[in-house]
Amino acid sequence: MHCGCAFASQSVSPRLPFEIKTLVASKLRALSAQLPRTQIQINPSDDLLIDGSDKSTEIRVSLPSHVKSITSTTNPFVKHCLKLRQSSSYRHAHGSVLIVGAIPIREVCMFQANKQGITTEIECLLLHEEAQIPLGLESLSIRIVRVSSLVMKKLSGVQSTESVEAIALMRIPRSFIDLKDGESILTDCNEWFPSAHRVLVLDSIQDPGNLGTLIRSAMAFNWDGAFLLPGCCDPFNDKALRASRGASFQLPIVSGNWNHLKLLEHEFQMKLLAGHPATTTQKLKPVSELSLDFAQSLAEKPLCLILGSEGNGLSEQSRKICDLVSIPMAGEFESLNVSVAGGILLFMLQSCSGF
């Protein structure tokens, strides 16, 4: 099946002087070298359209308008969507992400609908061939493509698709900022977060479930954003999205390095506080104990809360430059799971605790 594009039959070109042919060929090679390279290869017979007209470096891949249903798992668009779910670099190159499940899709749509000037950027909604449009999405002007059970199972990444009502292909939100390592730190960090009174900083959090849960908790306790240091997994990983329940589309997220974080600290005069078990560093550096009085003493102070990785804890740099705080525990445990400990710290240190 062709994608609606007309291909002209090969014609015989007129004879040209050798010098003109050489000049044209050299200019074409120079022009080709300037064009951006894409990570997806499409054959003329594939039912896909590639739009490279966008001013950004993102490459948009979409279905032709006449396609209403997909039944084969070998369809090029299915392969594109599957790669979006599996590859972080592919997701960010195309600026698109898959969201699996009606609940997180609905939460993202409801949040964006309530924000002035923000529109829901759903490229298409994939529904099972026999499913109804999920509650809360009926009134939205969304392109719907029906897919077979096999396609739904392949794209969702779960064994049973009975609970998967819908899959949405969405644009990565503009509230996500990826600061490249080579990028100059002379950038306006005021544009990173609408407010920077409370920022969650994640230091090499590699488990997508923990990262998604922490982003969801930060959103629930009214923190202003999340900053991801090198070594963190992609917040738009399918498992992270499932754990965040759409919070990755609502909370401003910045991915950067320590130089960017120091710029943020200096600009807003923020206190760097890191969660860390008291038993492991008590002799090396003082560790404050989390309490109501401790939280209230920081109520007016702009704060970055840094949480370390699951296996290694805080990085050496975090332990060196941050004040440390521990969660008191009556039980004989050295530490808590990072998402559990993070939830407690995010609750206690939120701006308006309501105590």
TrEMBL record:
GO terms for biological process: methylation. It comes from the Eukaryota. InterPro entries: Alpha/beta_knot_MTases, Ribosomal_eL30-like_sf, rRNA_Methyltransferase, SpoU_MeTrfase, tRNA_m1G_MTases_N. Residues 199-347 form the tRNA/rRNA methyltransferase SpoU type domain. GO terms for molecular function: methyltransferase activity. The keyword Protein transport does not apply. This is tRNA/rRNA methyltransferase SpoU type domain-containing protein.
